[in-house]
Amino acid sequence: MNGYRMPTHGDMGMVLQGNAQGQLSISGTAAQTSAFTEAGYFDLWCDVDAYVKVAPTADNVTTSTGYLIRANTTYPNIMVLVGDKIGAIAGGAGTLRYHKVS
What we know:
- The chain has strands spanning 4-5, 13-14, 21-26, 31-32, 40-46, 50-55, 67-69, 75-80, 85-90, 94-100.
- By secondary structure, it is mainly beta.
- The protein has one domain: Jelly Rolls (Sandwich), CATH 2.60.120.
- The strands form 3 sheets. It has a 4-stranded antiparallel sheet with strand order 3-10-5-8, with no helix packed on it. A 4-stranded antiparallel sheet has the order 4-9-6-7, with no helix packed on it.
- The protein is globular and about 35 Å long.
C-alpha cells in the first residue's frame, strides 16, 4: 500500500510526509471540499456531530442521507477517490478536519 512501510521486525509505520490535510467549515447548510486530485485513505474528525458524504458531488448531503460522525471522535481510513469531494452538514457551526494517512 502506498504510504505504508512494510514491517521488518513486527512493527508498522505510516508515512505522513507530503500527505494532504485540511478542514471544512460546516453548519446547517451543506458544504463540500474541492475535488481531490489524489486517492487515498483519510482520517476524519469534527468538533460537532456531523453527517458526511464522500462522492463526486457531496454538497447534497443531508442529516437523513449522510454518515454520522460523532463530535470529537476520529473515524479512520475513509477512502476518497480521485474526483471525490467530502461533504458535510451539522446542526450547528463546526469544523470538519481530515488528513491523509495513505
